[in-house]
Amino acid sequence: MAARFPFSTVALVAGFAGLLIPLAAHSQASGNSLTNAGSPPRRDLSGTWAPAEGTRVGIQAGGVQAMPNDGNPEHALPYTPYGLEVYESHKALEGVDAVLPAEHNDPRNRCEPLGFPRVNHYNVRLTQIFQNPYKIAVLYQYDNRWRNIWVDGRELPEMVDGGVIAGGTYKASKWYGYSVGEWVDDYTLAVRTVGMMPEDRVWLDSTGRPISDAATIEEVFHRVDSQHMEWTETIDDPKLYTEPWVSMKILFSLQDPHTDIIEMYCSPVEMEYYYESFGNAASGIEGETE
Amino acid sequence: MRNNIVVTVPACFVVLVLAVPTAAHHSAFAFDTENTLTVEGTVTQWFWANPHCLLEFDVMSDSGEVIQWVTETQAPANMIDAGWRKNDLKRGDEVTVTVQPARSGNPVGRIVRVEFPDGRILDVIQDRSGALGSEYHLSGAPTD
Fold first, then answer.
1. Distance CA A38, CA A224 (A)
2. ipTM score here?
3. Which pTM value belongs to this model?
């Protein structure tokens, strides 16, 4: 079963081993780790996690963490013609093509669900993971959203128009998709997700990069040691991108299990007030600060 | 209240300014990031909400006109981590606020510093190295 996952994806974990050692040392030095790092527990991702290098790493305001939308040619994405067309239709508030606050069309600003995988690229702060032998639940701080990763041996659903076939049954597209994981080894969980919402409902990141319902998202959760986990994401979306590309490689550190997480809801009322009172005035629209 | 606009300061907040956009909900280009503006006013509302908290205050111009300012900080999650509480600012509080002003010329801006009568100062700092690092820092002890 493990052979279903491309070697290149899993190999990313080993490829970053050199990076992880100093990062782990840095995190512990900053006082964020609980105790000295040791061997991680077998097949266990549970805990409360935070980006080891600080909050800004998870916020990803400038685009997906591994490929920020900063104009650097090395961060240019391999758009298909249609993918570029969709990107250009998005009026984002961040990134090199950002528009004024009053001119955006980001669904985030209407408090629409971020969907998956954008939930991996927007204010990823304290993240809780719970698991049992059947599934792993990932609980995100932003907007109290969560998703399940099935680890009960089921097959990845087959993508069909408007949804998936799972266990012989049609199921409609979901904001957070259908995720199936398998343990590659005792410390590495490989996950694939399909069946997300189409590109007219969701964005990939806050700079307007697109994602479609044809995407297969591959994630690798790798326990580096008892206090750290690396979370990697690769996007394969043939409708919008000509080839798969790595969008995220973030090291997380385990937090005190007593940590109480601050709510960070997206309230439509608050969001509307923010743009009416501040965003419009900043954009030069008169009479909106009264 | 005395003077409205205190001073425009170019460049001297460069280090602080660099930290401002990292958790922004929007691009910085709507704002003059090369200069800061300091104004004194009376708080009308401390809007504690996502995506960013807003500090609203009235400034009396030299001509006697009341100008309503709206300025932003960060998300409550960041502010709490920096030591803030939801009710730290109340209607009627006198504040001195330094902002990156909007290029539009409207009385809005991104907060670089807030000084309170009780001696506290909220300013922008480089992100802390911790997992819960924040970009705003509250310093100084209340005088009462």
1. 9
2. 0.74
3. 0.81
